[in-house]
Design brief:
The chain has about 500 residues and is α/β, with parallel strands linked by helices. It has helices at about 55-70, 85-90, 90-105, 110-125, 165-170, 180-195, 195-200, 215-225, 235-245, 265-280, 290-300, 305-320, 325-345, 355-365, 380-390, 395-410, 425-440, 470-475, 475-490, and strands at about 5-10, 15-25, 30-40, 80, 105-110, 135-140, 145-150, 155-160, 205-210, 230-235, 285-290, 450-455, 460-465, 495-500. The chain has three domains: about 5-110, Nucleotidyltransferase, domain 5 (2-Layer Sandwich), CATH 3.30.420.40; about 115-300, 2-Layer Sandwich (Nucleotidyltransferase, domain 5), CATH 3.30.420; about 305-445, Hypothetical protein af1432 (Orthogonal Bundle), CATH 1.10.3210.10. It has 19 helices and 14 strands.
Length: about 500
């Protein structure tokens, strides 16, 4: 990446929204500006897991201010990610539609494991090179991420639904601190985290690190009280719990180093951290400044293992897990890409230079049969469900949903899709995939000589497939399937013509 390139990362956390801006010099990121606003979206989910209007408005107001600061940035220079609260929110699309408009950039809701991967990348690059086996812990507002890794590579990643906001609301709802409340909160946190015992046992790591959020806030309090900077130990956590119980309530709590935005959620955060210490037998946790947004920035810079490679490996893992015919998947991908390239040159609204469109089309082609092990007749439906509910590293949840819709739509009726039929890029990808599946119906490389796919130069939303008469005579079944495909597109805003030259 060229020196002087501006970059910005936006982190929509459950407690705070953060914006970090900087530039690249000699392969390193240098921060020039950091904005943080306490939005508390994590406490704005109602009983049906919908964001309240007030919580959405707080988020929109913050992102509008961030958006003003990001005016003039290119789309390749900004990455915005959202975490657990928006993973849970049933009405997240309502929030995200306006949120992206206010910010001026798309917002990706990432899975828990993808969040964990990015956290580890941010932490690893903030530490000196080492062969130590690392346990990285990030306690957020509504989730806690645990990662085992070595060097720059995470080995095991998991996200658990336990966090400072959620536990404060559940066990310290009236802002009262009692020993009984802490006991119940810690027992409940251990119950959620209990499955981590085997994977994150003490002999699996050498050093424990805490990333930002709750761990950093508790570290600040302990340093202000005279503890050594840079780490948190069991004695310090015991001391802090006694201080909270002595104060009896958050309103009466007076501790140097405690920021006002942490006052009402410190009880929940402390109880989760104490549970982690006990469960994983941690004596001391070292503090680090690296975290999620730093991992996001490293991805933008290309200083992590290539994002495309991460996604390609995720696709390969899904293929292996569900026993797909990889040879046929690659065959369909090759044909789909050839057809898509033809379309790109004639469809004006599709960015011909955006290689990402082709990569995502190829991944959908490779995965189009992953539901076959469940049911052959409805395998496209099962494949879509698998993608919508998978933790595929490198992919955001909206990206996985888009792939799921390509897989769902590669055969059968088109009206079943949950897509915007005005999205020319998606419709071009979908047509290329459907035609590739048709042309590869015999599960061998098809003859594409004389076959041409284009967009009509005179009619809007019109695709045209042409072929030589000799091709139709040589491949009558393929020609029949293409005529059937014409009928499938009649119930959409798009038109498909098929005719010999």
């Amino acid at each position: 990446m060229q020196d002087g390139t501006r970059l910005a990362a936006v982190d929509l956390g459950s407690n705070s929204f953060r914006l970090e801006i900087g530039h690249v010099e000699h392969g390193q990121f240098y921060r020039t500006e950091y904005l943080k606003e306490t939005v508390r979206q994590g406490s704005g989910l109602d009983e049906e897991r919908n964001l309240t209007p007030e919580a959405m408005q707080r988020g929109w107001d913050c992102l509008a201010r961030f958006g003003e600061r990001l005016a003039g940035f290119d789309s390749t220079e900004v990455c915005a990610v959202a975490t657990q609260t928006l993973r849970e929110a049933r009405n997240r699309e309502e929030f995200l539609h306006k949120a992206s408009e206010f910010l001026g950039f798309p917002i990706d809701v990432i899975s828990g494991r993808e969040e964990a991967r990015l956290i580890y990348q941010g932490v690893a690059h903030s530490l000196p090179p080492s062969d130590e086996r690392r346990l990285v812990i990030d306690i957020g507002g509504r989730s806690t991420e645990l990662i085992l890794g070595k060097g720059w590579k995470p080995k095991m990643m998991e996200s658990y639904r336990v966090g400072s906001i959620a536990w404060s609301a559940r066990y310290f709802a009236d802002n009262q601190f009692t020993r009984h409340a802490f006991q119940m909160a810690e027992i409940a946190a251990k119950a959620v985290l209990d499955e981590a015992l085997n994977a994150y046992r003490p002999d699996a790591w050498d050093v424990a690190y805490g990333s930002a959020g709750t761990v950093g806030a508790i570290g600040d309090i302990l340093v202000a009280a005279g503890w050594a900077a840079g780490s948190v130990d069991r004695e310090g956590l015991d001391w802090l719990q006694d201080k909270l119980i002595s104060a009896k309530s958050a309103d009466r709590l007076r501790l140097a180093g405690l920021k006002d935005d942490r006052r009402t959620i410190i009880g929940g955060g402390l109880s989760v951290l104490r549970a982690v210490f006990d469960l994983l037998q941690i004596d001391r946790m070292h503090l680090t400044n690296g975290g999620l947004r730093h991992g996001v920035l490293l991805n933008l810079m290309g200083n992590t293992p290539d994002q495309t490679d991460v996604r390609a490996r995720s696709v390969q893992r899904l293929e292996s897990k569900f026993g797909t015919d990889t040879t046929h998947g690659l065959r369909v991908a090759k044909v789909a890409l050839q057809l898509f390239v033809q379309l790109q040159s004639t469809l004006k609204s599709v960015n011909t230079k955006d290689e990402r469109l082709g990569r995502k089309l190829a991944w959908a082609a490779q995965l189009h049969e992953i539901g076959s092990r469940i049911s052959h007749s409805d395998y496209h439906k099962h494949g879509a469900y698998i993608l919508d509910n998978s933790d595929a590293l490198g992919f955001s949840l909206p990206e996985l949903h888009r792939l799921s819709q390509l897989v769902l739509g590669h055969r059968g009726k088109l009206r079943k899709l949950e897509v915007d039929f005005e999205d020319a890029e998606f419709m071009a990808q979908l047509l290329a995939l459907r035609l590739a599946v048709i042309l590869c119906h015999a599960r061998r490389d098809p003859d594409l000589n004389g076959l041409q796919l284009m967009c009509s130069a005179t009619k809007d939303k019109t695709f045209v497939v042409t072929c030589l008469s000799a091709w139709m005579q040589s491949y009558p079944q393929s020609a029949h399937l293409l005529r059937e495909e014409v009928l499938a597109w009649q119930k959409t805003p798009w038109v498909l013509f098929f005719s010999p030259d």
